[in-house]
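Q: Fold this one first, please.
A: Sequence and structure below.
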Amino acid sequence: MPCSSPTGEVYVLNDGGEVDLDLGNYERYLNVTLSRDNNITTGKVYSQVIEKERKGDYLGKTVQIVPHVTNAIQDWIERVSKIPVDETGEEPDVCIVELGGTVGDIESAPFIEAMRQFQFRVGPENFALIHVSLIPDMHGEQKTKPTQATVRDLRGLGLLPDIIACRLVSPQAVQPETKRKISMFCHVSQDQVIGVHDMKSVYHVPLLLESQGIINVLQRKLNLVDYKIPPHLVEKGADLHRRWQQITTGHERLFDTVHIVLVGKYTALKDSYMSVTKSLEHSAWVESSDLEPEMQTQDPRKYHDAHRSLVSANGILVPGGFGVRGTEGMMLAIKWAREHKIPFLGICLGFQLAVIEWARHVLGITDATSTEFNTETPSPVIIYMPEISKTHLGGTMRLGLRPTIFDEDSASWSKVRKLYGGNEVIWERHRHRYEVGPPYVDRLAKSGLNFIGKDEKGERMQVLELKDHPYFVALQAHPEFCTRPINPSPPFLGFVAAASGPEILEDQLETQLKTFVPPHPKGAVSLPLPMANGIVLEGASTHE
């Protein structure tokens, strides 16, 4: 139950929920599809309790943190834990609840008390507590006193850890003596002390945990040893394990380096583009404003460093963002990629800026811009969507999983469509307020800017691609939100392949046409939607 972070990326779910980026990690690692109800926050719980009080559900009693707020937290967890989250449609056997923050925080106090009560509601055989604690490394000596203190505080609040996960911010594993001391002073056996040190790749961490016996500990605690798992799910788990091992082996045997430049607005805070970097894993970062001409006099070093990174890149990525700052630098990067045939991928704002750049330098509309940057512009190539509120900004964007329908003629040439397995309809998550201005669509298309993907009504431009370019693709959606370690996002996969060379891209196109599987459960895309040609779209069938 991660609470929304004041910093970093806003992660978008299928149902349009804007949540903490931790939920993105759970979706990627567990290959599940979550909803906004999987994100429990203090505000949501208090709102629910206040609503119940207004309706008279408490019969006039004084509403208190205990029992009313703590009961609401427990009820929420129990309800959401039974909701299917994968393609099986079955009720989950195990629910992971992340209680964020630090033991002793005022903010987390009601949640800790709720968990203390919850262990008795569900019974000890249905409740396992993993406590994550930092182990400082002082000149090679691993200190256990902070862990001893935090476990003592936790036990004072009525929670006893079943597993202590020792986080070391170093490549050195937990020493046997460290495990022995934590076991002695924290009331756990040594096999219940799990070390989590820095690895070459985060994808090694699940295998690291498995090698230390964490599965056996949880099986004993939750009585899962004799649990009967259907044969097809056993095979599915074994296949996942094999593929995960292949991923980690591949990370250790990298033969080449591809230089990707991410031209963004928020490069000072790396978590701002967490899902993008998870889709890429390796990229250089360029602050877009450093590319703009005025920076040449304000800070020549930053200006020349940014341009050096740009011109040496094998691929250029322009991600999402808001506001005018740095957008001219982003368009300079897009222009460079277009004119010099450098693989390019634009996401959300990157899509809109690619349209503006084309309008300015190909169509000759020199003052083309977005109404986000200039509300009085005479050439609004990008406009505010009419149905979006201009007074209430929170949760009012075009959000969530939405279909994109490819043009018929794109099947013969579009690289990005092939990356999606050649499907006519794809589904990606959106988060935006602006769109391509309808009066400019025909002019842009006739000049060679191919809008090959549109919404279900054929009115909103959602994917563009250039024919005479190694890889120039932009999407209004955020495909990075649906990437998985064993099922990478098609536009990102194609982008990195193109940056590696035309032969690599061709191989990936052939592979994707044969093997692409959408990451969404069928139920997530099964709602009937009217397509542009008037027939009814059954979302699940479009992927089969």
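Q: Good. Now the second chain.
A: Here it is, same layout.
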Amino acid sequence: MTELVAEFASVVEGRELGGDVSRGASAARVYKQLTKQRSANATSGVLFGAEGAQQRHDGKWWQSESDTWDLLARLYEQRQQRRDVAMDDNMDASTDDDATLSDFVRAQDLLERDGQLAEYVEVRRWLEDTAREFQPVETRKGYLFYTRRSIRTQDTADSNAMSDNTQLVTDIDPDASSRQRRDIAIEDHEYTTSLLRTLFEYVRRGRMSDAMALCVESDEPWRAASMKGGLFWRDPQLEDAESTDRVGGNINRNLWKHACAALAHDTGNDSYERALYAALSGRVDEVLTVCVTWNDFVWAHVNAVIEMRMDHGLRGACVYEQAPATSFAHVQSRRTCATDMAQVFDIVESLDGCVQNEARDPLRRLQRALATNAFAEYVEEFAQALSPETDVRMVRVVAHASLCVRQSGAELPEPAVSAVLEAYVDRLARDHDELVAAYVAQMPTERQTHVYAQFVQMLNVSRDHRMQLLQRAERHGLDTHAVCRAATLAGVQPDDLLDSSDPSDSSDPSDQFELSEPSEPITNTEQRQVRALEWTTSSSHLYPYALAQVCTLSRHFLLRGRTNAATVLLNSLPADFV
């Protein structure tokens, strides 16, 4: 953890980024790699028992944090680019009503114009890239191999030997089972079930090309063709010559989606086959039946929102007449589809069981704020809830996330960001005081002096170490003279020093004047007050201010008979002070 804190600080200081203008997203990518490495280290050579459970828990945290940095980098880089494009006065006109363009071009234009939809697509990609690992089925050549062998056996055996196979299909084609209402060989059924699950898991992870390749390699190319219908229609005569050289995609994509919905609606199909075609058509009903994790459920709903908005955005003028889909009215989804990202997370958080518990995870809540573009509100809530019991890991994450978002050009509430940074500085001060200046420098100018002065005046370290902290502050652009004055003032003036009246005027016998012995050691409070002057005696430019504080503190000591403390004070001053 110590090493990670230093690595994060080096990014804040800019040593890892150079002159990158997109520092917010670039910093998030560095944080992603750092935490991803921690996850790999935590899960390598996992032990058994309680120690092994802690290793797995730590590995899960680091992986989730790495995923969070990945999401931040993706979204805020896209948002920054969109702000840059919005400043360009020469933006191309919309192609919304241009009937001479292919669906592919219109879809690309829609994503460029609808920034929110483009973000939803990026969130879906993130959910696909961060999905849990799974074991795909092996490739098997020969369609329905065991069923085919059983049919050949039936053709050559006598009638008594055929009795066990009379329920098997007699033809080898994809529709034979449903047409004849017979089964295929149990080995083929098991493989088909595993194949369909693998196809869904590939689509779930955005690996459509892998899914279609598996179908072809397993001698089931018709499945690949059925999934390929989602590609947008392209025509080189309606696009730039360099973009494509042949016609491709599906000119009746809407009809294909209705057909997929019908397959998903058919209760006679395998659950993963239904989920596969439901995902392709943008339905949620059947996809949710095979979802397991928070990530799965969010993906199912985000995918449905994207398909719905794409369909709505592509309605209107078209160069061709689409085939009607009125015969599929009976396969309408029973669930009400979410319309935006916030509704997606509200739906998932309302679920029972482990999914709801996972949705309450601190990093999941942060991921929601990033995905819904509500990070400003999240930071305010987090700052208000800060306490000594707040997980230091979340303080670190939110502090650095705030810096990344702010560097990306987004507006954040400065008081809340400063509160989070101060909380992180407070934790750094215990073990990493050399890193504090880098974070104080990220606060508003009016807070920098106060926060750094409060930090340094509480340190009980050597004078040389104190001077090193001042050098770090100067290197990060802090006003070191103002810091020294504030640190000295805070150190030499505790509450009892604010009233410098003669203690002999007090009626309290305990306050009567007593002269201390020269050899009597000074108290810890007096030692702290004397050492507080080290800040202003560190530079000759501050000697006038230091002299005033020396006089005030000396008078305070002498009025109380603490001649020993006054002697220590005067002996601590530099030789060239007077």
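Q: Anything worth noting on the second one?
A: The radius of gyration is 35 Å.
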